Every structure is written in C-alpha cells, then in structure tokens.
C-alpha cells in the first residue's frame, strides 16, 4: 500500500511535470478486501488495490483535467500533458478564482493496524459468527465483511502538500426467512470494534419479528426511523441541499432561507471532519483544511458548505468541502452528524399511539430537489406501532415525502448514534421520531 509520504511525492512530481499557469495533482490510492456470504456460506473472497492520479491544469482561467492509474514516468507525463492540452481548448471561466493556497491541516491518525491486519481468515471467522446466528434460527444470511485503506494526497503549484491515510471496516447482514427479513450493519475505522455475533443476532431477531407481515392503508403516520433510514435522509440533504452550488443556483432548500426556522428545534446538523471520532481525511480534494461547519442549528438554517470556487460566490469562507475536479455537484459535506438527543429508541416508540417503525429505506430517489422530496420504500423490518409498542410486522411501504417538511415535525431523537456509510464519508446519526410521514402504498 502506498504511504501518505509516497502519495505526496507522487503528487508533487505530477505538479512539476505540468507546464501551466497553475497546477494541482490529486492522488487517491486504495487497497481493499471483501468477504461476501449468501445462503449461510461464503461465496466470494476478493482483494485489490489501485491508485489514481488526477491532474488539473489552469492556463489563463481555462481549466483542463486528466487522470491515470498508470504510475510509470511516461504515463504520468502523458497524463500531465493531456491536462494541459485540455486546458488550452477549454472555454475560459471568468469566475475561476485560481487554485487555493495552503492552510494548517489537522494531523490525525485514522489508519488502524487492527483493520490493516484483518485478513481473509479474520473475515471468514467474522462471517461465520454472523451467519451462525441466522443458521441456528432456521434463517438464511447474506452480507459482507470488508476492510479498506485509502491514502489521499494533494499538491499544487501554490505550495499545498498534504497526505493522510484512513482505514475502514464495514459489515452488513440481511437475515431472511420464508416471509420476514432483518438488516444490521457496522462501520468503524477500527476492526477490533466489530462484534460479529451481535450483528448477526440483531438481523436475525429482526427477521423473526418480521414474519408474516400484514397490510397498512396508505396515509400520513407518525414514524420512528432507525439510524439507517436517517442516514439516507442526511445523504440526500447533502446531495441536493447543503452545496453552495445548489444554494447559489436557487436549487437548495437553504436558498433565501438563511437564519430561518426550517426544521424542528431538535434538529442540529453539522459537518465535522475534525471530531475525534470522525472518519475520512481532515482536508478536502483540493488540499484545503476542512472546517467544522454548522448547517442546521436547533432547526435554523445557517448556510451551505463551500470550496475554493463557490466560496467567493457566496461571500462565505472556504469550508474545505471540494470534491475531485471536475464534478457537477460543487462542494459536498462528507462528515455529517446529527446531534444526539436524550431519548432511547424504546422511549421514541413508547410515545407513538399509532404509527410505523422503519428499520431502513430502499431504492430512494429524488422527486423534487428543493423540498428534498424523496420517494422509495421501506425494507427489512417495518412494524406497526400501537399504544407505544411494536405490535405486528408490515409489508414494505412506498413513500413520497418532502424531507425538509418531515424534519420540521421531528419530535424525538435518541442519545445513541451510529455511523452509516463508508470510510471515505459517513454520517453519524441517531434514530428519530417524525410526527408526520406520507406512505403512498404497499409494495407487492
């Protein structure tokens, strides 16, 4: 695996080989290993590694980008020349502010030896422990155990020179019987924190509880959403709402609503790559230090995230949220956290007279980006709540719901939070109670 110092050296070499007014080189190296299981047995075991160099050349406000995963000298030079050639024929962008200058980057250790050494045998033992919990209950388990390490480095002609390594361990399990299914997942920087039997129990018990699901009439119901479902909401808020590009173009629910109450006072959402528990790097894909960025505070809209291009357009500081160039999305938060509340999951359920509990969503898409209207379905553990108790499993439900509106009616948040996502970008989220959520029909 390439070390951060080796990746930095490669990025700087690419900068030196590129003849342009301004130059940026991004290096992304990855090694990963995956053990997949289905029908209660391992059916795939793979490992791989790759490295990508992405070169951005700027000539008189004309920007060209080229990339390669061939790292020999000739291929690297060809990539640099291709970026320059692209810049020469690109249309000039009069708003391009130039590449960013260096700033102080928080040095942290987010690469764990326990994850690096979690080899095929360790993954097989973890998979067996997960599967056994379903097998002994007469269920069938499918899922994965995956470990990965990413090294990211950035150099540019203004002196940016940064590099960090991050690791991640991910496990998922879908446990299924004749008519019910249950889901559980795990994500951490540190493989030693994985307890596979507990994960297997969580999914298997959920599957047994979901047996023989029943119908529910369409309509608006209170819902308690598990952390997996909440993470989907956070992902789509980031995707269509929290970008300065969407804000400037009037496509964000934040547009014209800064300092307005847009969600419940129980909702505080922050992007914080600097927190001790955070995953990913502490700088963005331009090498700019990430700032802890409050987005929603006690329901009040504070503003989007920015990068070196969109910060001047908003008048806000560069928060360090650039994605690799070129991209159509603008800046994007990758370390979202929803603040913890004071409730337990049982207390949220206990406060509902008649409603629905949702473990997770599936096949979610955007119907309208401004109110963040999402459509999709529930999956792997949907239950009717009656008089504060889960009383019967439900067939999966279709929904169409403006999520900003739904979050205005957030009436409860758990103290417990969990990571959902990948080592490169994960949301830290609680379970929540929403007083109104629109289910449009039943899946078949």
Question: How does this model look, in words?
Answer:
This protein has helices at residues 4-17, 73-89, 113-116, 120-135, 196-209, 227-240, 244-248, 311-314, 345-350, 403-408, and strands at 22-38, 41-59, 62-68, 140-156, 161-176, 181-188, 219-225, 269-271, 293-297, 300-301, 336-338, 354-368, 373-386, 389-393, 397-402, 410-422, 425-442. It is an alpha+beta fold and 444 residues long. It folds into two domains: 4-205, 2-Layer Sandwich (PmbA/TldD fold), CATH 3.30.2290; 213-444, no CATH class. Helix 4 packs parallel to helix 5 (196-209). The radius of gyration is 23 Å and the shape is globular. The mean pLDDT is 97.
- Percent strand: 35-45%
Helix content class: 10-25%
- Form type: globular
Cα distance, first to last residue?
A: 47 Å
Order of helices and strands: HEEEHHHEEEHEHHEEEHEHEEEEHEE
How are the strands of the biggest sheet laid out side by side?
3-2-1-4-5-6
Radius of gyration: 23 Å
Determine the number of helices (DSSP H or I, runs of at least 4 residues): 10
Count of folded domains: 2
């Amino acid at each position: 695996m390439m070390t951060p110092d080796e990746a930095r050296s490669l990025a700087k070499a690419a900068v030196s080989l590129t003849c342009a007014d301004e130059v940026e080189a991004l290096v992304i190296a990855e090694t990963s290993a995956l053990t997949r299981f289905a029908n209660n047995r391992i059916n795939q075991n793979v490992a791989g590694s790759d490295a990508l160099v992405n070169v951005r050349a700027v000539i008189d406000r004309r920007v060209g980008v080229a990339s390669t995963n061939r790292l020999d000298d000739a291929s690297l030079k060809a990539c640099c020349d291709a970026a320059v050639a692209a810049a020469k024929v690109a249309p000039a962008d009069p708003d391009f502010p130039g590449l960013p200058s260096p700033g102080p980057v928080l040095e942290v250790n987010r690469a764990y030896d326990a994850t690096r050494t979690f080899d095929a045998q360790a993954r097989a033992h973890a998979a067996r422990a997960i599967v056994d919990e379903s097998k002994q209950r007469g269920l069938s388990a499918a899922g994965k155990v995956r470990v990965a390490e990413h090294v990211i480095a950035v150099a540019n002609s203004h002196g940016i020179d940064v590099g960090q390594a991050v690791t991640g361990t991910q496990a998922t399990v879908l446990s299924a019987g004749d008519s019910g299914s249950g889901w559980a997942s795990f994500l951490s920087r540190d493989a030693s924190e994985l307890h596979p039997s507990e994960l297997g129990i969580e999914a298997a018990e959920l599957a047994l509880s979901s047996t023989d699901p029943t119908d529910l009439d369409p309509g608006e119901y209170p819902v308690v959403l598990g952390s997996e479902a909440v993470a989907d909401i956070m992902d789509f808020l980031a995707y269509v709402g929290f970008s300065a590009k969407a804000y400037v173009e009037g496509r964000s629910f934040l547009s014209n609503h800064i300092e307005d109450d847009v969600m419940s006072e129980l909702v505080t959402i922050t992007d914080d790559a600097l927190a001790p528990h955070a995953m990913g790097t502490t700088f963005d894909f331009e090498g700019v230090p990430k700032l802890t960025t409050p987005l929603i505070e006690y329901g009040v809209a504070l503003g989007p995230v920015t990068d070196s291009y969109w910060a001047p357009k908003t008048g806000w500081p560069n928060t360090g949220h650039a994605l690799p160039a070129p991209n159509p999305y603008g800046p994007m938060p990758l370390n979202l956290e929803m603040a913890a509340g004071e409730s337990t999951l049982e207390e949220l359920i206990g406060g509902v007279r008649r409603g629905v509990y949702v473990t997770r969503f599936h096949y979610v898409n955007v119907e309208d980006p401004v109110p963040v209207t999402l459509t999709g379905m529930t999956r792997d553990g949907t239950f009717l709540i009656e008089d504060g108790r889960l009383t019967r499993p439900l067939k999966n439900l279709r929904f169409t719901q403006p999520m900003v509106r739904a979050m205005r009616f957030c009436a409860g948040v758990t103290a417990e939070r969990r990571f959902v996502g990948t080592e490169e970008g994960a949301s830290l989220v609680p379970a929540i109670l929403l007083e109104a959520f629109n289910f449009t029909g039943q899946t078949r």
